[in-house]
Amino acid sequence: MTTDATRRPRSVTLAVVLLMLGALVAATTATGPQGPATLVLLLLAVCFWFAVRAGRGRRTARTAASGLTAALLVVAAPFALDDPLYGGTTLLVAALLAVPGVVLLYRPAAEAYVRARSGDDDVEYGE
C-alpha cells in the first residue's frame, strides 16, 4: 500500500526518461569511428543504473546520475564539435534532454518523494 508521500511524482518519472534519452544521445555522439566506445558505453550503463535508482527515490543515486550525465556530456563535447555536419546539434539535443531531467530531479515534489522514501521527513538540513 502506497501513501501519497511515497507515490512517485510524474515529474520524477519524466526526469528519469529525459536523463536516459539525453545520455543515450550524448553517447551516440561520442562513439564515432575514433571515439572511446568502451568508456562511453560504461558511462552510459552506469548513468542508466543511477537514473533508475534515482527514480526510486535514492538520494545518492540522484547526485550520481546528475554528475555522470554531466561527465557524459563533457566526454561527448570534443567528438560532437569535430563533426561539422550535425555534431554540435546532436550535443545540443542531448543537453536539451538531459539538463531538464536533472532539474526535475531536484524540484520540490521530487525532494519530498526522496525524503519520504529515505525516511528523513523531519530532518531539517542546514541547522
TrEMBL record:
The protein's superkingdom reads: Bacteria
The organism encoding this protein is Streptomyces coelicoflavus
Q: Which UniProt keywords are listed?
A: Membrane, Transmembrane, Transmembrane helix
Q: Which residues cross the membrane?
A: 36-52, 64-81, 87-106
The name of this protein is Uncharacterized protein
